Amino acid sequence: MRDWKRWLLASVICWGLPSAVNAEPHAKDMAGIQAAVRDTLKDPDSAKFKMDAIQPADLAGDGLYYGCVNAKNSYGGYVGFRPFLAFVAKDKTWQAVVAQDDTMSAVFHKSGVEKGYDLDC
């Protein structure tokens, strides 16, 4: 049941994104983004990141970021790079949504391409 909620959240976020520009996250943002993504993983210590930034959206004055993460699954094997979206919630904490399957990956990819951003995981 939790998966459909994540998919819905990701879809809403993706279609609300502004056009993309090259906005690099600050070092403190990078730490917050990576921590939020790690919180969603089964093996947080295994996370390997590819980071690309999306234009800051008007979410509490902070940005919405896209990136790719590869991490181990329950069986101990890497699953391959999957896209994620990270953003600052209203309570000023970093939140992240990681694509859990090919459908979510396609939604993230299509959204980015439509906004003029080359999303390559």
Would you kindly provide a written description of the structure presented here, covering whatever features stand out?
The protein is an alpha+beta fold and about 120 residues long. The protein has one domain (about 1-115). Helices cover about 30% and strands about 20% of the residues. The chain has helices at about 1-15, 25-40, 100-115; strands spanning about 50-55, 65-70, 80-90, 95-100. Helix 1 (about 1-15) packs parallel to helix 3.
Question: What's the short story on this structure?
Answer:
The chain has 121 residues and is α+β, with helices and mostly antiparallel strands.
How many discrete domains? 1
Structural classification: alpha+beta
Q: Going across the major beta sheet, what is the strand order?
A: 1-2-3-4
Q: How far apart lie the N and C ends?
A: 26 Å
Which radius of gyration do the C-alpha atoms yield? 13 Å
Number of helices: 3
Which regions are unreliable across 5 or more consecutive residues at pLDDT < 50?
15-22, 55-62
DSSP strand content: 15-25%
The major β-sheet equals: 4 strands, antiparallel
Helix and strand sequence: HHEEEEH
What's the structural blueprint in terms of helices and strands?
Elements lengths: L1 H14 L11 H12 L9 E6 L10 E7 L11 E7 L5 E5 L3 H13 L7
Antiparallel strand pairs: 1-2, 2-3, 3-4
Question: Top keywords for this entry?
Answer:
single chain; 121 residues; alpha+beta; four-stranded antiparallel beta sheet
